[in-house]
Request: fold
Amino acid sequence: MQEISTAFATPAAAPAWKRWLLFSPLARIAIFIALFMAGVMLAEHGLHAVGWGKGAPALQRGLAQFIGRSLPPLIAYLVLVKLIERRPMTELAPRKLLPHGLLGVFLGTVLFSTIVGILGLLGSYHITGFNPHAAWLPALLMVGLGAGIGEEIMFRGALFRIVEEGLGTWAALIVSALVFGFMHASNPGATVWSSMAIAIEAGLLFGMIYHLTRSLPLCMGLHAAWNFCQGTVYGIPVSGLPADGWLVSTRSGPDWLSGGVFGAEASVVALSLCSACTLALLIVAMRHDSIMPCAPWQRFRHWFRRC
Reply:
């Protein structure tokens, strides 16, 4: 078996208290959450102070959502990596931002367009008009870039990576996917099915993409393009949120096919296609022997000390 490297390893000379209170996976996740929550509160107060609240124009609200969704997790992650882990942030290196981000945008566009194409062939997706005045820029800032940057830092950069370092790849995939899926449980029209669908189709897929590439910009670009295409290009609700799309569309058929009011993410088509992509990536990972194991009987010790 090849040697598997991780982004962070506890320094050999670190005293016991640092191993538990700073360097253990549980401690680092707690530190990230605390920094993130503090950043969210500061961002909310700052945006409210400048008048970028609910009554502001659409573009200002979009900018406010972009700042609120992306800046707190980014700053929290920078502090975690630079001050706690004290390592180069290779997963978010500047040289990767543009090429990997654009590749992610391309892949996300192709993936979601394929889902819509299949729904169309099955008679579930119907275009009824064109709306050239769709508010695309606020949507790009909020559900595109804001969600893509912020959520990928939280769920792949922090949660998946740190759990993988402590409990192995399988645990990281399961934990990060479930948390990611049920984070959407409070969205309009959400059900247990829609949350599980997002956990399986997106949580597992994004986790495997990060596992194989160690690139956050790639995940961010794919995530942003998925959301933007779904809402602004194809006019489908994004995780239950209303869409103002260039294409005015409707969906018909049973909810398990169309996705219902939650959107195409709750469709068996999205679930099947994304699961097939995840399975292909799993096969690649297993052939390259990159899956990080963690013996079940050692799981509690490894939660506090890297496998």
